[in-house]
Amino acid sequence: GSEMCIRDRAAAVPQASAGFLTGKDAAVTILYTNDVHTYIDNKSPKLTYAAIAAMKQGYVDEGKPVLLVDAGDHIQGTAYGSMDNGATIIELMNEAGYDIATLGNHEFDYGYAQLAENMKAAKFKVLCADVLGADGKTIFDANTIIEKGGVKIGFFGLETPEAQTKANPKLIQGLKFLAGKDGKELYACAAAQVADLKAQGADIVVCLAHLGVDESSEPYTSYDLTKNVKGIDFIIDGHSHTVMTASKDNSMVQSTGTGLAYVGAIIIDNATKSIESNGLIDLSAYTKEDATVK
């Protein structure tokens, strides 16, 4: 399929500019990451966020519309995160040019107060539709629409309800995670987001889902979401650290593994306003780095 072609070309032409993944000239590209877990140097001597920054800039330099998004678990994992409770990672993500991120369960590892403080510095949109504060409102914006290349792309973020049991209860005091024993509360939340984004005129609806596909996470997995909620065009998944290519069973759900094993790319045809293809870019085949981010 075309996704294999994307991956082969990516591997075969590591010197090419980022444009090697762009389909038609007028296409819009969404580059995505998940579960980076502060592994900023695991492609040593190349630095991961520096490579991603260069990749995004490659599209910008060619005048091609591009977005860079993340599906959670970015501030915790190594000493790079714990030395300042994730603050520097947010700076790095700002510099790399992230447009949107959602929360992973590990975003709460240093406490909600610290998370809120960290995200004040974020130059990217932080989205989370299913975690409510003491006031009953979402702790970050639930959704957003970004128009790129004439396509209105709606995004909403979903945090795994497992964060309730995986984070220290003291650190998430006063927060309500929409779940429901049968998952219905989570599905209703997602359906409301889809409806809201469509009402706002979104051509494409993308869920940044830190849900994963592990059976132990049912009924809160991305697969559960696809079965129970209509109208989502694409799910960028995190949490289970799965490497999912478009040729797998469910090509609507994609994930890049962990520690920047890959960077994902969704290509949207802006004439038809539909998803043309998607695939994974192997960072080890990509040689450029952004000097500032490095």
Helix percent band: 25-40%
Q: Order of strands in the sheet with the most strands?
A: 4-3-2-1-13-14
Terminal CA distance reads: 35 Å
Which residues form runs of ≥5 with pLDDT under 50?
A: 1-23
Rounded average pLDDT = 87
- Number of helices in the DSSP assignment: 8
Q: Identify the overall geometry.
A: globular
Helix-strand string? HEHEHHEHEEEEHEHEHEEEEE
Can you count the beta strands?
A: 14
Determine Rg (CA atoms, Å). Answer: 18 Å
In percent terms, what proportion of residues is strand? 15-25%
Name the structural class: alpha/beta
What composes the largest sheet?
6 strands, mixed
Provide a compact summary of the structure:
The protein is of the alpha/beta class.
Overview of the molecule:
The chain is α/β, with parallel strands linked by helices and 294 residues long. It has helices spanning 2-12, 48-61, 79-82, 87-96, 112-120, 163-166, 184-199, 222-228; strands at residues 28-33, 66-70, 100-102, 125-127, 131-132, 143-148, 151-159, 176-177, 204-210, 234-237, 243-244, 253-256, 262-269, 274-282. α2 runs parallel beside α4. The longest helix has 16 residues, at 184-199. It is globular, with a radius of gyration of 18 Å.
Record keyword descriptors for this entry.
single chain; 294 residues; alpha/beta; 6-stranded mixed β-sheet; 14 strands; disordered N terminus
Blueprint (SSEs and pairs):
Layout: H1 2-12, E1 28-33, H2 48-61, E2 66-70, H3 79-82, H4 87-96, E3 100-102, H5 112-120, E4 125-127, E5 131-132, E6 143-148, E7 151-159, H6 163-166, E8 176-177, H7 184-199, E9 204-210, H8 222-228, E10 234-237, E11 243-244, E12 253-256, E13 262-269, E14 274-282
Parallel strand pairs: 1-2, 2-3, 3-4, 7-9, 9-10, 10-12
Antiparallel strand pairs: 1-13, 5-8, 6-7, 11-12, 13-14
Helix pairs in contact: 2-4
